[in-house]
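name: query_chain
kind: protein
chains: 1
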Amino acid sequence: MTLPRRALATSCAAVLLAALGACTRSPPTGPRANLILISVDTLRADHLGCYGSSRGASPAIDRLASESWVFDAAYAQSTNTLISHATMLTSLYPPVHGATPERRLTDQVTTLPEVLQDAGYRTAAFLGHDIWLTRAMGFAQGFDHFSTRPVLAEKTNRDVLSWPGLAEDGPFFLFLHYYDVHSRFTQLPYNGGRALNLRFAGPSPPDFDGCRRGLCASELLVQANGDSSLLSENELRWVVGLYDAGIAAFDRRLGQLIDALEARGVLDTSWIILTADHGEEFREHGLLLHLQPYPSVARVPLLIRPPGGREETRVAEIVRHVDLFPTVLDLLRVTPPAGASPQGRSLVPLLEGEPNDPRTAVTWGEPMGQPVALRRGTATLVLRTVPAVAELFVRDPVTGQETRKVAPLIAGRLARNLQRFERMQEQARTDLGLVGLPADLSPAQRQRLRSLGYVQ
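structure:
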C-alpha cells in the first residue's frame, strides 16, 4: 500500500477547510465525500504498531494511521459484537437500543445508514459473518445492498470492489465488517495461515495442536475459562502468537483493498474510519476471549482519515463508539432527522483542536451488565454484582496501562456516577418507547452460539 503523506497544516482553519470544510460549517460546494466505515472484529488496540506494539503485525493499518487522527483512548460500549455494532450504528447505549444475542435491533430506532440513505447516499454493507450482523437481527435497515457471508477478507474485498456503487455518480457509504482476527470455530484458536503462524507463534508446543480433550478453537477457549488446566501458560503464549498472525493476515488484505481504492481515486474523495467492536483478553484478568470490560477488551483502535489524508495527529481524550454516529453526520454535513436521538457527541471539535467537555465511557460486559466499567479521566471503576467486586484502576496517559489502586473516595464517587448513568439509560429507553423483539435464530445457529457460551 502506498499512501502519500500530506504536509501538516498550520492551523485549524487550514486543516479543516482543506480536508473537511467544517471549521466554518459552510454548505458543501461540489461533490460530497464518501464514507467507508471499517470494523475489524476482536482487534486489540495494543497489538497494533500505531498503538505501541513492536510485533510488526499491522503495517497497512499503521500506514493508514500515519494519515489519520489516531484516538489513544477509544472505548467500546459492549464486549459483544452485536451489541457493540448496534451502538455504533444508532448512537444509543446498549440498555437503550436493547439489542442482545437474544433480541434483535428494533426498527423503531434510526440507524446511521438510514440517515445517509435519506440524504442521498448509496449504502452498502459487506459483512464477513452470518450470525450477529444479519437481516434477521435488524442490521439491514438503511442499506441498499446488504451482504453477509462467512468469508475471509480476500473474498469480502472482492465483493466490495465488484460493487457497482463504487463507480456511480454521487456519494456512497460503505460498512465493512471483517471477522479474520476473531477466534475460529474449527481447528486452531486463531489462524493467520501456516507461514504467518510460524513467524508470529513459532512451532506448536509439545503435545498441543490447538485442540485438547476433543475441544478445539473457540470452544476450547470457552471451556478453558472454567478449567485452566486445558491451556498452560506456554500454550497460551503460542495462542497469542496465533492471534498476532491473524492480525497480520488481515492487515495484508486491508492493504490490498486500500491499494485498489487508491488506484480508483476513491481515497481522495472518502473519509475512512477504522475501529473494532472490542478487543480480546488473554488472562490478564483471569479469562480468555472478550467477556470483561478491562482495557484489553474495551479499548479499541479508532482512526479517522480525511479525504486525501493528513499528518498523523494523536488525540488523548476519552472517546466512545456512541460518538461515531454524530461524528459522521458532522463530517459529511448531513443534518440528523427529527426522529434521531443520538446519545453520543461529535468528535469534530476534537479534530479541530477545540476544548471539549470530558467524556465518560461506560462498557458493559457479557452477559449484559456483568461486569460494567466506567471510565472518567484516568480513573476506571469495574463493578460486578455476582460476586460483588469493585476494582479501581488508574490509567497512565502515555502507555495506556491501567494499574489497580485503592482509593475508596474516588471509587465511591464513580460508583454513584454509574448508578445515575444507568438510571438515565432506563429513562431514555422508556422515553423513546423502544420495544425489543426476540431474535429469530435457527436451531443450528442457537446450538452454535450455545457451544461458544453466547446464549443459554
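note: The radius of gyration is 21 Å.
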